[in-house]
């Protein structure tokens, strides 16, 4: 059965990891704890509803989640293993791309390619 303690375990895994994770990725990572996939879905939904977690939608992937408290950052999506990584900081000059008289409310930047494990640097 679901319990607040298990929800916290899921949320704290997301805090400790280096990028947004899907329900299945969390399930794989927490397999040793015996937390079932249904509980993980509930924990992720509850976290998103209460504002503890932020929903991260990346192209072609399942919905991922990250702590809402994480500062402004972007993501790198690996074409090899489909893992998403946090990228620190931001790009300069994003505001310069704005057409005249448009108002900017936010932006997203997605980097993609191959992570180090998938031979990106080789
Ligand atoms: Zn990879
Ligand atoms: Zn940015």
């Amino acid at each position: 059965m679901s319990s607040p303690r298990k929800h916290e375990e899921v949320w704290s895994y997301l805090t400790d990891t280096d990028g947004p994770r899907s329900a299945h990725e969390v399930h794989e990572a927490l397999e040793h704890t015996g937390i079932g996939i249904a509980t993980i879905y509930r924990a992720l939904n509850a976290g998103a509803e209460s504002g503890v977690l932020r929903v991260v939608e990346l192209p072609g992937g399942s919905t991922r989640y990250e702590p809402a408290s994480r500062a402004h950052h972007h993501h790198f999506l690996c074409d090899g293993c489909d893992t998403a990584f946090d990228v620190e900081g931001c790009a300069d000059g994003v505001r310069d791309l704005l057409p005249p008289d448009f108002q900017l409310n936010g932006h997203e930047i997605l980097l993609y390619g191959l992570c180090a494990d998938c031979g990106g640097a080789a």
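The first strand starts at residue 21 and ends at 22. The helical segments are 4-16, 23-29, 37-50.
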